[in-house]
Amino acid sequence: MTIDPYSDIPAYKQLAAGLRTMIDSGSLAPGQRVPSESDLVQRYGVARETARRAIALLRAEGLIQTIQGQGSFVADRQEAVTMRFPSGTEVAARMPSPEERRAFGVPEGVPIFIVRDPAGRESKLRADRNVILFAEE
Amino acid sequence: MTIDPYSDIPAYKQLAAGLRTMIDSGSLAPGQRVPSESDLVQRYGVARETARRAIALLRAEGLIQTIQGQGSFVADRQEAVTMRFPSGTEVAARMPSPEERRAFGVPEGVPIFIVRDPAGRESKLRADRNVILFAEE
DNA sequence: GCCAATTTGTGCGTATGTATT
DNA sequence: GAATACATACGCACAAATTGG
Fold first, then answer.
1. Sign of torsion, CA B93 B97 B99 B101?
2. CA B91, CA B113: separation in Å to the nearest integer?
3. Is the pTM of this model over 0.85?
4. A119 burial class (0-12, 13-18, 19+ CB within 10 angstroms)?
5. Mean pLDDT, chain A, as a whole number?
6. Which nucleotides of chain D have an atom under 7 angstroms from any protein CB?
7. Can you list the pairs that B1-9 forms with residues at least 24 positions away whose Cβ atoms lie under 8 Å?
8. Distance in angstroms, CA of A57 to C1' of C5?
9. Where is the HTH gntR-type domain (chains A, B) (predicted)?
10. Considering only alpha carbons, which residue of chain B is nearest residue A63?
């Protein structure tokens, strides 16, 4: 994988696309560390900001999580719990506010479900760990 | 609203919080233009990157949309269509890939529903314009 | 069509702070 | 303490898109 600075596609998107391919193909497995910013800078000859932007893009897609002082890691996708809800239930989804992110411990790039039961009561669930199933008991 | 550069809270988060308050309170109404980067730089005495980061934060939350050459605009929230699905339907949500974003015309900060019907067929819906209702016909 | 002004996008450099190992 | 890694913040320059004259 190389970066073409003369391409119409911005360098940070090219870089993100390359990393995304590695994640999708499994060559970067869930839990595994993504190359550090310095790594990307050296290997691909880009500025640090360019590397950071590629990382930020994947983080916003929910593909990786970043921890200061440690690095970025490929997110787990499979371990979702199926939650069962009865007829009349309404489900919305949106990105959480920073307060909701803190409250639920949700990383960047992860939406939340807003589930409203027939009585109008709302509950929120992080969308990376839950799947909604419509079915009576 | 002022920015305190000596606060523990980063300047761009302070700025984003101020703008978020204006949006939530309706003082910045849906469809209305958010102050430009240059405006923010001049009014609050921050660097352009700081202003851009505040904007990017709100965009990632789905609160605003940005159009190159025009500016950022407060997103509409209310106009969601209710989609009805039968028992056995499974619903997940996640952020779209860039390809899915293009395919569905979804702006940044907007998740998509992945709806799987009892037969296993998948369909995708943008989460800012759709609500899922579980109910038989 | 053209040009200028405005606004966001991309990319580089530097410096310093914070967190982890 | 040292090394590594990410976070914040400033500066600069030019590109791309839109709008208005």
1. positive
2. 7
3. yes
4. exposed
5. 95
6. 4-12, 16-19
7. B1/B44, B2/B44, B3/B44, B3/B45, B3/B46
8. 31
9. 9-77
10. B95
Task: Output DSSP code: residue B33.
Answer: B
Residues of chain B with C-beta less than 8 angstroms from the C-beta of A86: 134
Distance CA A125, CA A84 (A): 12
Q: Which amino acid is at B86?
A: P
> Is residue A114 a contact partner of residue A93, using CB atoms and an 8 Å limit?
yes
* pLDDT score, position B5: 81
Tell me, what DSSP letter sits at residue A86? -
The predicted structure's pLDDT at residue B47: 97
Tokens 């025009």 belong to: B70
Cα–Cα dist A109/A95, whole Å: 8
What's the token pair of residue B109? 């900060």
A98: helix, coil or strand? helix
What is the DSSP pairing of strand A90-94 with strand A81-85?
A: unpaired
Closest-CA distance, B96 to chain A, in angstroms, reads 7
The span from the CA of B127 to the CA of B115, in Å, is 11
Q: Which two tokens stand for residue A129?
A: 């760990």
Are B134 and B81 a contacting pair, CB within 8 Å? no
Element (H, E) at A12: helix A11-25
